[in-house]
Amino acid sequence: MADFAQATVKLVDGMQFVGESGTGHAFVMDAAPGVGGKNSGCRPMELLLIGLGGCTGMDVVSILRKKKLDVKDVTMNVKGKWVEGDNYPKYFEGIEVEYVVRGKGITDDAVRRAIELSESKYCSVAANLRGVSKITTSFRVENE
Fold this sequence. Notes:
By secondary structure, this protein is an alpha+beta fold. The chain contains three helices and six strands, in the order βββαββααβ.
């Protein structure tokens, strides 16, 4: 792994920006119409939630597959609760992650342990949020 990650973010029009990762993947960000945007892309803080869901989801899937479990689908529903008040910067004081794991022979204990390992050891996005946002988790297993 490289010693750094990089990205380029460029203004396109109004409040619309295109971000490109160091690995060459691009996405659009925009603001709400009330603040000069056209609602043509994700808000930056939504991308933070998506990043957390993707990071922990990759961990959980990897851990469950290493246990030779038949994982068919994993969905993370991620909600951020804004800090109260009118002060800036706005941030998420709390983030809830609900995991929905589908497959065959998946146990609650296996999912619980995979989530614990992601939270405590593997998820870099969660590590960067610690001390700022309280992350809580829940899960549901749907066996076929």
